[in-house]
C-alpha cells in the first residue's frame, strides 16, 4: 500500500477511535443532567388531602399528586419526597413522628434542587388563626371583626418574634447539608380574598371585618418567609399575584385552596390538585425549569 494511502487509513482510524471515545463519554455526561431533587416541607408541600395518597407513609398524609411530584414528572428529576403534613421548622432537624427522620437528613452534597413550604404551622399560625377567626365569625353571625378585636397583633408579633428566626435556622441547616443545591422556598397561596365576600361565609365562616385581617396575616407570614429565604441564599417563589382570584371563596375548578366547609378535599383550607399543579408550574417558571 502506498504511504499516502496508508496515512489516510491511519488518519481515518484515529478519527473513528476519537469518535468512539467521545460517544462513550457523552452518555454519562447526559445522564448527569438529571436533577437530584429533594422535597421538604409541610402539608402545602405534601399535598395533604389530595388523592392519591402515598401509602408508604400514611402518618404524613402525603399525596403522589403534590407539587413535588408534578415538578419531578415534568422535568424528569429524581425525586426524594419527605414532605409531611403538620411539619414545623423544627422538624427539619428533629424527628416529627417516631420513625420519621428529620427532613434535612434527606439532603446532601449531591442534592441539586430543594423545594419547600414551611412556617405556617409554627406557633399554630394557620390553624390557630383559622380556628379562632372561624369560631368568632360563627358566634358573631359574620358581623364585625371579633377575631381582630380579640387577638389584635398577637399572631403578627409571634411571627416576627418566633417564626422568622426559626425559619432562618431551618434554612441554614438545609443549606449546610446541601451547599450546592438550588433551594426554592414557596410562599403560601391566598386562602381568603382581600375583602369579604358575603357569599363565601357558608364555606369560610370568617366575619366580614376579619377577612382582611386574616389576609393581612397571611401576607405578613409570606413576607417573613421571603425575607428568611433571601437572607439564606434561597429563591422565594411568590404567589401573591399568581394566586389572586384562586382563594377558597372561589368556585370549584377556579380555587386552588379548598374552603373550611363544603369543600372537595379530605383536608380543608389546603391546596387541591389544581393548586398543587399551579404551585409546581409557578416554581418551574421562577427557576427556569422544564
Protein architecture, described:
Helices cover 42% and strands 7% of the residues. With 290 residues, the chain is α/β, with parallel strands linked by helices. The protein has a five-stranded parallel sheet with strand order 2-1-3-4-5, with helices on both faces. Strand 4 (182-186), helix 7 and strand 5 (235-237) form a beta-alpha-beta unit. It is globular, with a radius of gyration of 24 Å.
Helix/strand class = alpha/beta
pLDDT averaged over residues: 90
Strand order of the largest sheet: 2-1-3-4-5
Main β-sheet, in a few words? 5 strands, parallel
Oligomeric state: single chain
State the distance separating the first and last CA atoms: 55 Å
Low-pLDDT runs of 5+ residues are: 1-31
- Classify the beta-strand content into a percent band: 5-15%
Secondary structure: number of strands:
5
**What best-fitting shape do the alpha-carbon axes yield?**
globular
Proportion of residues in helical segments: 40-55%
Strand/helix succession:
HEHHEEHHHEHEH
Number of helices: 8
Please compute the radius of gyration using only Cα atoms. Answer: 24 Å
Amino acid at each position: 500500500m502506498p504511504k499516502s494511502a496508508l496515512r489516510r487509513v491511519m488518519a481515518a482510524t484515529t478519527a473513528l477511535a476519537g469518535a468512539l471515545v467521545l460517544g462513550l463519554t457523552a452518555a454519562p455526561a447526559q445522564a448527569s443532567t438529571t436533577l437530584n431533587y429533594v422535597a421538604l416541607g409541610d402539608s402545602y408541600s405534601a399535598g395533604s388531602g389530595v388523592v392519591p395518597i402515598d401509602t408508604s407513609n400514611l402518618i404524613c398524609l402525603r399525596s403522589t399528586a403534590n407539587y413535588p411530584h408534578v415538578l419531578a414528572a415534568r422535568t424528569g428529576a429524581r425525586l426524594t419526597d419527605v414532605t409531611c403534613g403538620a411539619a414545623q421548622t423544627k422538624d427539619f432537624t428533629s424527628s416529627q413522628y417516631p420513625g420519621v427522620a428529620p427532613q434535612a437528613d434527606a439532603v446532601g452534597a449531591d442534592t441539586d434542587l430543594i423545594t419547600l413550604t414551611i412556617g405556617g404551622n409554627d406557633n399554630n399560625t394557620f390553624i390557630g388563626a383559622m380556628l379562632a377567626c372561624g369560631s368568632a365569625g360563627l358566634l358573631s353571625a359574620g358581623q364585625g371583626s371579633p377575631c381582630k378585636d380579640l387577638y389584635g397583633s398577637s399572631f403578627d408579633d409571634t411571627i416576627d418574634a418566633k417564626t422568622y428566626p426559626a425559619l432562618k435556622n431551618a434554612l441554614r441547616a438545609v443549606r449546610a447539608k446541601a451547599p450546592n443545591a438550588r433551594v426554592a422556598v414557596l410562599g403560601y397561596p391566598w386562602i381568603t380574598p382581600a375583602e369579604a365576600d358575603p357569599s363565601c361565609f357558608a364555606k369560610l365562616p370568617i366575619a366580614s371585618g376579619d377577612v382582611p385581617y386574616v389576609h393581612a396575616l397571611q401576607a405578613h407570614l409570606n413576607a417573613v418567609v421571603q425575607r428568611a429565604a433571601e437572607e439564606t441564599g434561597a429563591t422565594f417563589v411568590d404567589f401573591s399575584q399568581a394566586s389572586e382570584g384562586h382563594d377558597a371563596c372561589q368556585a370549584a375548578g377556579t380555587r386552588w385552596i379548598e374552603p373550611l366547609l363544603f369543600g372537595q378535599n379530605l383536608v380543608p383550607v389546603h391546596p387541591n390538585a389544581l393548586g398543587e399543579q399551579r404551585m409546581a408550574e409557578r416554581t418551574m417558571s421562577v427557576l427556569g425549569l422544564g
